[in-house]
Amino acid sequence: MKLLTKSIKFKYPMILFVITAISLFLRLYYLGEPHGAGYDELASIGVANQSFPFGIISKLYNQDYHMPFYFFVLHFWLKIFGSADISARILSVIIGTLTVPVMFLAGKELKSDKIGLIAATITGASSLLIYYSQEIRFYSLLGLLSALILLFIIRVNKKPIRSNYLGLYIANILMMYTFTTGIAFVFFELVIFNMYLYIYEKKELKKMLILSFLTFLAFVPYLPMLFHQSAMASKSLINPSFWGGQSNVYSKIAIINDLITPFLVNIHVHSPKSLHDLYIACFNIYNTSRNDGLVIFPGLYRYILAISELNIFIYVIGIIISFQKKGFSIIIFIIGVLFFIFTIFCSTHHIIAMTSRYFIPFLPFLILTVSHGLGEEFNKIKFLFILVITLNISVLLYYPYSAARIERLDKFGIVYKNLKEYEINKNDVVVIPFGARFFDQYYQNATVFPFDYELAFLYGNKKYLNLALGNNISNMLNEENKSEILRNYLINNTQNIEFKKYFEEEAINKLQKGHYLVLAFTNLNSPFSTKDLKNKAGNIIKYNEKQNLELYVWLCSKITNDILNHSYHDKRLKPKVLIIEGKTREIIYGQNIQKIDFPASVNSSPITWEIHIFEKIN
Fold first, then answer.
1. Do 437 and 46 touch, CB atoms closer than 8 A?
2. Which end of the chain, N or C, is less packed with Cβ atoms under 10 Å?
3. Where residue 605 falls among pLDDT bands split at 50, 70, 90?
4. Does residue 289 have a pLDDT over 60?
C-alpha cells in the first residue's frame, strides 16, 4: 500500500519532468541558426554590454525606449558566458523553459495537478513562446513574469500569507521594469483583483490596497526616464511604431492566430491584408532562403487550416467550460482580456506596433483559463487534446517554417562572418548605419562609424538628424512643409555638406594608409537607387502616417547612396571587394565593381547584405 502511495505521489512530478524536458528540447532545437543575430538581438547585446547599472540606463535614456531589468540580467549573463549568439540565447531558453513548471504550479494552485499539467503542456508547445525563447530579448522574461504573477495572485487568493504577498509584489515590480506595457498589465491585474476582493474577501482588501500602492510607488523613481523616452519619441521625424504594420481586422486575426496556433504569421512583418495573406505567411514570408511553399505543397494550406482550427476549437471549448464551472479562472481571464484590449487599442492608434510579441503577458492567463476548462472535462476531450499537442509538436519539429526555423530578418551574423574573414580590426572603420549604435558590442574588433539611421529618424536625436538632412533642412521642418522639404531632399542628387564633412572626419580621415573602410548595408532598409528615389519619392504630394515605413526606407536609401557615391569617388580609396550575401554569396573584386549600379543587392533574395571593402591608398 505504501509503495502504491509513493507511486501516485511520484507520478505527476515525473510527468512534469518529461513535459519540461521536451519543452527545453523544443527551445534548443535550431537554436544556432546560421545567419546570426537579428536587429533586436544586436540591440540587446549592445545595451547589456554597457557598464552596470548607469551605462545601461544611459544607453536606454538616450538611444532606446525600453525598461532596464532584462538588460541588467543579460549584462551579468554575458559577463560569464560571452556575447556569442548561442550562448546569449541560452538565457532566453532557460527563462522560457522555467515558465513551464511555473504554469504547472499555477494550475495546481488553481484547482488540481491535472490542470497544472495541461497548462504546462500547452505552454511548452506554444510556438509564440518557443520563438521568443530563442531570441536575445526580454519577451521570454515577460512570459515568465506573467506566469509568476498568475501563480502568486492565485496563492494570495487562496492563502493570503506574507510570502505570497511578497512574491506578487516582486513579480509585479519586475514586470513593470521589464517592458513599458507591463505597467498597464500590472494596473489591470491589481484593479480587477482589488474589485474581486471588495466583493468576495473584504477582510483582505486593505492589505491588497497597500500592496498595490507600494507596487506603483516602487516605479516612481523611473518615471522621469519614462517621460523622457516619451518626449524623445514625440520629437522623432518618424513614428517609431511604423514597422509593426497597419492595423486592420486581419492583423488582429493574425495576432490571435500566433497566440493559439503553431503557425506564426505576425512576428516581424507588416500586417496581412487578407486571409490569403495569413496562409501565404505560413510558408515563406519569413524564411527568405526558401522559395517553395505553395508551389511544392499546393494542398498544404488545407492541413494548416485544419490544425489551426483544431487549436482554436480546443481553446474555445476550454474557455466555455471554464466559464460554466465559474470560479477564480473567470477573474484570471478578465485580467488577461483587458490587457489584450488595451494592447490592441495602443497598436491601432500607433502607440506601439501591431505585432504578436506585445501580447505575450496575456498568454499565460489565456492558457490557464483554457487549461481549467479542459481539466474539468478532461476524460471527454483527452484524445482530442493529445492529438492537437502531437500535431503541434510535429509542426515544430518537421514543418520547414516552424517557430524554431523562422530566420531573423536582419542576419548580422553575415556581416560578422565577413569582417572576421577579412581580418577587419581596430585600425579599420566599419560603416553600418543600420545598427551602428550597437554593432561595436557585437563585433568588438573594429572602429564603428557612429552614424545610425534610427537615432536620426526615429529617436529625435538632433545631432544625427542635422547631419542626415543638413542644418538648414532639419531646422525648417514642420508638419505643414514636411512633405515638400523631404521630397526635395530625397530627389536631390547632391550630398549635404554637413554629412560629407562628418563622413570624412569620422571615417576616411581616421584611416591610415593600407587599412580598410568597410561599408555594410542591407536591402531591407536601403533598397533604392538615386533614380528609384526620384521616381518614388518625387510622386508623393503629401505624406501621412501610413507612409512612415516608405519615408524611413527612402531616407535610409538616400544616406546609403550618398555614402556609396562619396566613397567610390574619393581618390584616396581603392575598391577591393564587394560581397553580396543573402540567399547566395557573390564576391566581386577590384575595378569590376565600378561597372555595377548601386545598390547592387536590390534584386537579390529578400534580405541581403551588401558589403563594400575599400583600401586607403594615400
1. yes
2. N
3. low
4. no
